[in-house]
Amino acid sequence: MTELIKLTAAELADKIHSREVSAVEVTQAHLDRIAEVDDHIHAFLHVDTEGALAAAKKVDEGIAEGNAPASPLAGVPLALKDVLTTEGVPTTCGSKTLEGWLPPYDATVTRKLREAGVVILGKTNMDEFAMGSSTENSAYGPTHNPWDHARIPGGSGGGSSASIAAFEAAIAIGTDTGGSIRQPGSVTGTVGVKPTYGGVSRYGLVAFSSSLDQAGPCARTVLDAALLHEVIAGYDPRDSTSIDAPVPPVVAAAREGANGDLKGVKVGVVKEFGGDGYQPGVLRSFQAAVEQLRALGAEVVEVSCPHFVYALPAYYLIAPSECSSNLARFDAMRYGLRVADDGTHSAEEVMSLTREKGFGAEVKRRIMLGTYALSSGYYDAYYGSAQKVRTLITRDFDAAFEQVDVLVSPTTPTTAFKIGERVDDPMAMYLADLCTIPSNLAGNAAMSVPSGLSDEDGLPVGLQIMAPALADDRLYRVGAAYEAARDAAAGGALIHKVPELGGTK
Fold this sequence. Notes:
It is a single chain. It contains 16 helices and 11 strands. By secondary structure, the chain is of the alpha/beta class. It has an 11-stranded mixed beta sheet with strand order 1-3-2-4-6-5-10-11-9-7-8, sandwiched between helices. The radius of gyration is 21 Å and the shape is globular. Residues 25-475 form the Amidase domain.
């Protein structure tokens, strides 16, 4: 493995900006790594070799001319989840419905990355339309966890997290509707952050559930995630849910936290997360992480959020209802897949046959759930009631944050499960997001940071940190402090302990 791809994004940027190494060299090293291992991992759906090298060359030329880098991450290679539009580059959302579609515009996140000089290597694999917890629902085949190729990398953004865990990219972008950044981060030993809802523009993010979807950073370190967060965040008038407020000082908080002092920080352990259904090794790792926070000077107390136990059923009414509405746009009339277009079928028949062929089983399941929940006579009983539960969960968070600065829990109840193990059991699959969903329903900020390896199976475990809306900087301070202490105790960064890849799937 070339030494360049082992460096953090911050380290790569320093070397590129000081002309110790060129952005083209760094990009080529990552493209070579993709060529070497992605047959085993399948993190990417599309690799834009020509576009990536052209973007890297532009960064090098600007630096050679004496211009200041466009951002602290200029020249750093990134993997982009295939749910964000990229002008002239395929965007499939992991679905046959959009196979071959070349968007005519960039998502705001994509545009901001380009303007910052970040090099987009390509588009990563995902559960179809972001519906899943394992990346097995992709129409293009599953992604494999770099720690164990027989296991899932999480979902829906398993491709993004796997790409950085496998050193195919330095940083990545994911999206999080019910845990799709944090849960993959947990099971691949990487950092994943769901910013405050509205903190990052959703313009050009192909919608699954509009009141829950949020793009965010994936990285191997907390500082790298903070640097990427700062690039993509900010108000966007093209997104009606975008928050017109300053971006929280996430980079400064990450640098402060790395000093390892959490004196004056009050941490709440969520009482409702733990016990039956949680892997013992995950709980032991979590308890060790809590003790580490206490050793860093934090005050740790137990906090009850009684309505969190209703988050999962509420989510699986709200998200499918919004999915049912959003996916109605794929009507085979304007773009995307179209079948039975032979002049003998009505428009309604073409729509029906196209959706039958284009959507996978999980997408169909959620569309049917949502359509039923929104139907006449059932709206108040299902969707309306779920929104009331959402309000109660938000109030639980508000009450908790009156007592503490951040909340913590395991990110997911288990380590990575085997590919195929849960595909026929939707409820078992949905339980992977048990701890992450409340933050999506409330819209507050949350992070998963690696908390070591399970003593049962040697696989990564994640510590979830949750903060109030627009207090994203608290995540980075606490996460960076914990990360520094964890690495010091382990004698090195966790992610560097991933074994070399090779062999067959």
